[in-house]
Amino acid sequence: MSTSSVGLTTAQVQQIWKQACAELQLQLSPAVYSTWIVSNPLTHMMFLDETQALATITSPTAFHSTNLKKNLHLQIKNALDKHTGRNCNIEYKIGDPSIAFAHNAQSEQNSQHGFESIKTDITPPPIEFSQRNDASAFPEMQSFGQVLPQAQQSYSASNTSVSPRVGDLFSEQTLSSAQTDRISAISRKVGLRSDYVFETFAVSTTNEMAHAAATAVSNRPGSAYNPLFLYGGVGVGKTHLMHAIGNNIIKNDPNKKIIYSTGEEFTNEIVHAIRNKKANEFKAKYRSADVLLIDDIQFIAGKNAVQEEFFHTFNALTKQLSQIVLTSDRPPHEMNLLEDRLRSRFEAGLMIDIGQPSFELRTAILLVKAKAARVDIPIELAKTIASQVESARKIEGIITSIRSEVELKRRSITPELIEEILRVEITEKRPVIKVTPAEIIRTVANHYKLKQSAIKGTRRSKPLVTARHIAMYLLKEDLSLPLTEIGKWFSGRDHTTVLHAVRKIEKEMILDEQFHQDVSALRMTLAAISR
Questions:
Q1: Do the beta carbons of residue 364 and residue 377 sit within 8 Å?
Q2: Separation between Cα atoms, residue 148 and residue 152, nearest integer Å
Q3: Hey, what CATH topology would domain 359-429 get?
Q4: Which helix (H) or strand (E) holds 263?
Q5: Of 133, 309, 438, 476, which has the fewest Cβ atoms less than 10 A away?
Q6: In this structure, what are the phi and psi dihedrals at residue 391, rounded to the nearest 5 degrees?
């Protein structure tokens, strides 16, 4: 054994195992984790040198030890490697883990030496904690006294009573489900929609190039089409493809650092960082990304400080071969307030215009999304909807409405129901609203019990922002006012701000049924006023 080897204390071993367990809990199903990780802990670890470590996992029975090594060795090893910064060789032993902890406590006097070289930020525990050598010092071991007798009793009583359940736990279906759960958990943490994957993206001639490029980028991030710039109108699938790229990268390599943000969120983060003197933290966060996904990048145009920071972030990421994916409602050359140096960098990558979906594609999109939402829509009714809806985003809203009618009101999907929903959802079919912009703003203000001047002003409290965005949305959707004209009603805001507000309301109506009903109620009020 090398003279530089270091045996860790019980407290240090437990701290490493706690961090590894947090990692494993994201990867495994609750049944697998509770059965095979909690009751089979890390009980000893020795750092052999700067790069190698020896770890000991202690299991109560040979049955547990064999299955653990056979089925979960790679996951455990990866977690330990990550949280020690070393290549961990794992030894699987059979015994009582609490006794193993007590035995290790006899030779801990020199074990603190060298522990500071652990890769992760592990704060040394207080002295009184390190002196606690019983199982109570380790949270996962507190219930081990109950787990062990039960496990031994189950195993010794009958192999057949245990084996089927173990087989189920390690079946291909269970492990696949655990992997899916893990990917979904990581996606949510990043901010991605787990249902926005390539499998649920309907492809046709209007988007096949964008789909092919997005797939290539997700399989070879940083080496294929960097940056990838997708642009097009509302509801053509830009955001879906962006989320699908992120989800597929997570599926292929969960350890990739992915950052997803919108142009507005990126802007707000910079402003917050500057105000709170945390610019270095902001830079460290974004410039360490393996993959950067920015939706609605046009939002940063005209904001000098934001463009300056994004320029340097862009350069840093491309230099280290990190992947950048951007979406916008228009190509870079139509962003009048975008700096030339950013425009040239966006145009240096692959730019793809995603056209409006055809009737056939809209029908396919509707059927795919309906299936994902577990709504069985007959093909003829799907065609009826597709013939009257141009936006894929509105299709999602219609499916949400159909689902709520079926689930909450127990209605059948009939031509009458579809016609009724279309009458409300589609602008052309809504009751004619003949009101002025001022009347819309006043109606929204009264609905939310706010002052009209506040809605049109610059204050940014959440209730005001929501009401302001709804008013902008109604002016655009129901009165068809140009974005620039709408902006004049709200303290001279530019068209990109208005467009962002409209899209935000559209998304919220899809995700939140109560919010959707709230906007519908406002429309009914406006329709009544216009009679």
A1: no
A2: 6
A3: Helicase, Ruva Protein; domain 3 (1.10.8)
A4: helix 263-275
A5: 438
A6: -100, 130
Phi/psi at 261 (nearest 5 deg)?
-155, 165
In the chain, where are the structural domains located? 6-169, 190-353, 359-429, 437-530
Give the separation between CA 229 and CA 351, rounded to whole angstroms: 5
What pTM value is reported for the model? 0.53
User: Which CATH superfamily, name and number, covers 437-530?
Assistant: DnaA protein, C-terminal DNA-binding domain (1.10.1750.10)
Q: Environment class of residue 104 by beta-carbon count within 10 Å: exposed (0-12), middle (13-18) or buried (19+)?
A: buried
Q: What is the dotted CATH code of the domain comprising 190-353?
A: 3.40.50.300
In CATH terms, 6-169 corresponds, of 3.30.565.10, 3.30.300.180, 3.40.640.10, 3.40.50.2000, to 3.30.300.180
* Tens-digit pLDDT string for the chain (531 aa): 444 567 788 889 999 999 999 888 888 877 678 778 888 899 999 998 889 999 999 988 877 788 788 888 999 999 999 999 999 999 999 887 777 665 555 555 444 444 444 433 434 333 333 333 343 333 433 443 343 344 344 333 333 333 334 455 555 555 556 666 677 788 888 999 888 999 989 888 889 999 999 999 999 999 879 999 999 887 789 999 999 999 999 999 988 999 999 999 999 999 999 999 999 999 999 999 999 999 999 999 999 999 999 999 999 999 999 999 999 989 999 898 899 999 999 999 999 999 888 888 889 999 988 988 889 999 999 999 988 887 777 888 899 889 888 888 889 999 999 988 888 776 444 445 668 899 999 999 998 999 999 999 999 899 999 999 999 999 998 888 888 899 999 999 988 899 999 989 988 887 777 788 788 878 878 877 765
Q: Which of 41, 47, 44 is nearest to 18 (CA)?
A: 41
Peptide bond into 41 cis (omega under 30): no
